[in-house]
Amino acid sequence: MAESQAANGRMAAQAREYVRVDRVTKRFGDFVAVDDVSLSIGQGEIFCLLGGSGCGKTTLLRMLAGFETPTAGSIFIDGQDMTGIPPYERPANMMFQSYALFPHMTVAKNVAFGLEQERLARAEITQRVGEILELVRMDAYAQRKPHQLSGGQRQRVALARALVKRPKLLLLDEPLGALDKKLREKTQFELLGIQERLGVTFVVVTHDQEEAMTLATRIGVMDRGEIVQVGTPTEIYEYPTSKFVADFIGSVNMFEGRLVEDEPDHVRIDSRDLGGTVYVDHGISAAPEATVWTAIRPEKINIGRERPDGPDNVVRGVVREIAYMGDISVFLVAIDSGRMVRVSRPNIVRQAEDRISWDETVYLSWHASSPIVLTQ
Amino acid sequence: MKRRELFRPLVLVAGFAFLYVPILSMMIFSFNNSRLVTVWDAANSPTLKWYAALFRNEQILDAAWLSIRIGAMTATGAVILGTLAGLVLARFGRFRGRTLLSGMTTAPLVMPEVITGLSLLLLFVTMEQLLGWPAGRGVLTITIAHVTFTMAYVTVIVQARLAGFDDSLEEAAMDLGARPAKVFFRITLPLILPAIVSGWLLAFTLSWDDVVISQFVAGPGSSTLPMVIFSKVRLGVSPDVNALATILVVLVAAAVTVGALLMRRQEHRREREIQLAVAENK
Amino acid sequence: MSGSRTRQSAVSSRTRLTSGRMGPLWEWLFRIAPASWSEYVLQHWSGRAFVVAVPWLWLALFFLVPFLIVFKISFAEVRIAMPPYTPLIEWVSGQALAVKLNLANYTYLFTDDLYVSSYLYSIKVAAVSALWCLAIGYPMAWAMARSTPTWRSVLLLLVMLPSFTSFLLRVYAWVGLLKNNGPINSVLLALGVIDEPIALVQTDFAVYIAIVYSYLPFMVLPLYNNLEKHDPALLEAAADLGARPATAFLRITLPLSRDGIVAGLLLVFIPAVGEFVIPSLLGRTDQLMIGRVLSDEFFANRDWPVASAVAIVMLLLLVIPIMVFQRFQTRDLERGR
Predict the structure, then answer these.
(1) CATH number at residue A323
(2) Which residue of B lies nearest to C68 if distances are taken between CA atoms?
(3) Is C47 on the interface with B (CB under 8 A)?
(4) CA torsion sign, B231 to B234 to B240 to B241?
(5) C-alpha span between B230 and B60 (Å, rounded)
(6) Domain of B147?
(7) Where is the domain boundary, A212, A244, A276?
């Protein structure tokens, strides 16, 4: 996470706009794959399009690459309208989900392919292929064919092949999807290192929120063809603007309620779901008496045997399940209203004495800044 | 369980016996001395006299040479047209006239030969009347007819091969700056080359074998080998045809076996390399 | 907006063409062609359209148009001339166009018993042969699909090998085998099963056996392709759920291989209806198949209109099987994606 925090800092808010998606819609017959999407991506950013399968993220990426033509709207790359420009004339390169390495060519030939299309001199091609293979640490495998490589090696060749043309924009379709978990984590950081070194703008499509959180300077969450929220990973996680985003990213406890006190510096919500009231230490914009949803992340809930002071932000329940996951433990607590609440606690000490166990009655509480109040 | 294990080999032996006994008997009788093809003359056999007779038979040799030329031209034309059609059907998505094209490439696979032959002949006659081309019938009309019915097979083979490949390979090439024509020659063509080779061989075989369509569209002096054989065997069995069949079977069997062995060796090497790559990364 | 865009693309494709390797050639073509033509071609023709057009036009000219011509001639009258039929459309005294549709050829087909019985006989022969092919081919394909991978490729090759030799010669092999003094009769005589040679050539039996023999690979290959793809876990699951092997075959394997069965049956049936070589060499002389009738009308009687009508009726009989076959074929080819 530290790396991505650094990336956040590095990403200047006023970065020059490099990619602009202007009210783009893509229909396949009656099906609307991408619905009136507008986006602005800055130079040097790592922008992640995050969403479930069929949300339109891959279609959007393919329109950036030029494999699909928007039904309406335009795409600008570096200020130039891309309408009618075929993939082979765009300043962008793509890394495919399947890697799409040419099976009949060696690693070196695969990587050289793009440079050969630019009609560069032999010597220059050889030199640049050597450099990029060294960068991805595949120089020892230059004469192998794709079928002689492991999954991780193929991924690096695909990356090298897309980067060797020195594109200003690199499109990555589920770049780590085919790798196992260990390798994926390692490769994420490698990818970040390479991006930082070359200063390329990345647009990454992924369905894996962890991948998006680690890589992205900004994330665009997509649902049913629309961009529902754009923000930094922290914004998306801590300040989701809709129930969909709150629910899609991480896990969350959601309670329906009614706005009973609406002041500029605080609000109070009465929730039958929760069987109590929620006090939030900031104002929101909603009609009085409106129905709202309160979302609280599992790690922001305290669990204890004693009831904390105060009338708000506390609820009683019984522990039903405990899942020990190594780094954290997850408690499922049945609160008095009948709802199940998910609470996670880090396992700070190895062998805690007096650990909360099954069927114990506990009190759940949270800080007034923790709840997210959502109106949609 | 036991019974099924017996059933399977039994089925295979019986089935393949049915397929091969007639061919083998034909081969054996090609060495028979008797003029009565089907009566074994034990005293004077085996003999090679029918082979000698075959190689003295100018008519058969000329017809064979003609069939080889027509077959090669047909196969080349069918491969070009069939590859284009297969590419279009497998990769071009929807376009106007797609259904018709797909229909026109599958119907010839089952169309009775007499219908194809008759309709092509009537086309050639009409064209000659209206345009003066093709003037008369012969090698050209036979080749056109053969290309038309064999390209359907090439299309199917190429289309099936392309369906087995991810289109992202071609997209990747295009993304790296290759224009469509270059993508075809550098990526698609090498990948479907095995399909094209088998398509060429199949088209050649079909052309080499065809008698019905050729009979309709052939003109005087353009008798292909199957036409000559057909008129010969219609009059009765003739032992030099046995000899011809034997030569053909041996040639084809040898070619197919060598081809299969080569492919198998390549397959094995590839598998070993994959295993090596996996082992290395453990 | 779109007008200027296509104009722009025309300009860009022009510069691209003239700067390429074939530049001088294009330059020359643009110089000699009228400007409006080049403009049109550059705007509306793409490499893509060209690639579609080549096979499309070939098949339209040599596969589709011929049927229209056959259809047209089937309405003409026979005459002694070259071509031996009357034109359909004529200038009557240089003034008006007269269309002469002559249905006599079709009514003739249904009044003369020869044609109706030939059609029925051909359909019967083709259907019976297709079923025999299935009866022999299914067990073979099944047995092949359950062999070890090495054996599988060898057996597959052995199935295809005969078809690579020569159809005509394989039919001819049966002429030799079935003759009165041929090996089959000799063996039966020697064994004492029969006292004198039985007539095998020029019988229904000979036609069936030759059709089954020559078309068997067309049945085995689609069936094998289908059966080979079945996941063995399906049968294991069926066994696990208590099905005996026979039940598992009937309830799992057989329904799953339906597409292969239909494809195989049609691949045998449709061409067999019009079979010409086999009945000519081995068939009965008192009952012709329709392919032979067509060929006789055309070559022996030189009655092109009646031959055309015979072909059109045959096509109409086969149009539904052909369309079913196409559906299965397209589905099979597009499923791989």
Answers:
(1) 2.40.50.140
(2) B119
(3) yes
(4) positive
(5) 11
(6) 58-245
(7) A244
> How far apart (Å, rounded) are the C-alpha atoms in residues C270 and C276?
13
**Given CB atoms, is C281 within the 8 Å cutoff of chain B?**
yes
Classify residue A36 by its DSSP letter.
E
Contacts of A83 in chain C (CB under 8 A): 5
- Find chain B residues with C-beta within 8 A of A144's C-beta: 277
Q: What does the buried/exposed string (b/e) look like for C51-71 if buried means 16 or more CB atoms within 10 Å of the residue's CB?
A: bbeebbebbeebbebbbebbb
State ipTM: 0.88
Question: pLDDT band at residue A5, thresholds of 50, 70 and 90?
Answer: very low
Could you tell me if residue B41 is left (phi over 0), alpha (psi between -120 and 50 degrees) or otherwise beta? beta
In chain A, count H helices and then E strands: 9, 20
Chain C contact set for B205 (CB, 8 A): 163-164
Q: Is B241 on the interface with A (CB under 8 A)?
A: no
A94 and A206 in a single domain? The answer is: yes
CA distance B42 to C100: 67
Shortest distance, CA B3 to any CA of chain A (angstroms): 42
Q: How confident is the model at residue A202 (pLDDT cuts 50, 70, 90)?
A: very high
Radius of gyration for chain B, computed over Cα atoms and rounded to the nearest angstrom: 24
Q: DSSP 3-state assignment of B34?
A: coil
Residues whose CB is less than 8 angstroms from the CB of residue B175 and which lie 6 or more positions away in sequence, other chains included: A65, A66, A67, A87, A88, A90, A92, A93, A94, A162
**Which of these three, A183, A214, A244, is where a domain ends?**
A244
DSSP B206-266: HHHH--HHHHHH--TT---HHHHHHHHHHT---HHHHHHHHHHHHHHHHHHHHHHHHHHHH
Same domain flag for A63 and A198: yes
Which uninterrupted H or E stretch holds A346?
Answer: strand A340-346
Could you report the per-residue pLDDT of B199-221, keeping only the tens digit for each?
A: 999 999 999 989 999 999 998 88
| Residue A34: φ, ψ to 5° | -130, 125
pLDDT tens profile B56-92: 888 889 999 999 999 999 999 999 999 999 999 998 8
Query: Residue by residue, what is the 3-state secondary structure of A129-144?
Result: HHHHHHHCCCHHHCCC
CB-based contact (8 Å) between B271 and chain A? no
Structural domains of chain B, count = 1
Is there a contact between C9 and A83 if contact means CB atoms under 8 Å apart?
no
The phi and psi torsions of A214 (rounded to 5 degrees) equal: -70, -40
Same domain, A237 and A259: no
Question: What are the structural domain ranges in chain C?
Answer: 2-69, 106-335
Report if residue B263 sits inside a domain: no
Query: Domain residues for A336?
Result: 252-374
B199 CB-near residues (< 8 Å, 6+ apart): B75, B78, B79, B82, B83, B153, B154, B157, B158
Side chain identity at residue C313, one-letter code: V
pTM value is: 0.84
User: In this complex, is the C-beta atom of C147 within 8 Å of any C-beta atom belonging to chain A?
Assistant: no
Closest C-alpha among A339, A299, A295 to residue A316? A339
In this structure, are A227 and A347 located in the same domain? no
A127 near C CB under 8 A: no
- Whether A84 and chain C come into contact, CB under 8 Å, resolves to yes
Q: Per the CB < 8 Å rule, is B113 touching C153?
A: no
- The answer to whether residues A277 and A260 touch, using CB atoms and an 8 Å cutoff, is yes
Which residue in B172, B186, B276 is closest to A100 by CB distance? B172
Looking up residue B83, the CATH number of its domain turns out to be 1.10.3720.10
Q: Are A209 and A50 in contact (CB under 8 A)?
A: yes
Asked if the structure places residue B15 within a domain, the reply is no
Q: What CATH number does the domain located at C106-335 have?
A: 1.10.3720.10
Beta bridge partners of A256: A293
Indicate the number of domains in chain A: 2
| Cross-chain residue pair C55–B88, CB shorter than 8 Å | yes
Sheet holding A201-206, edge to edge: A92-95, A169-173, A201-206, A46-50, A218-223, A226-231
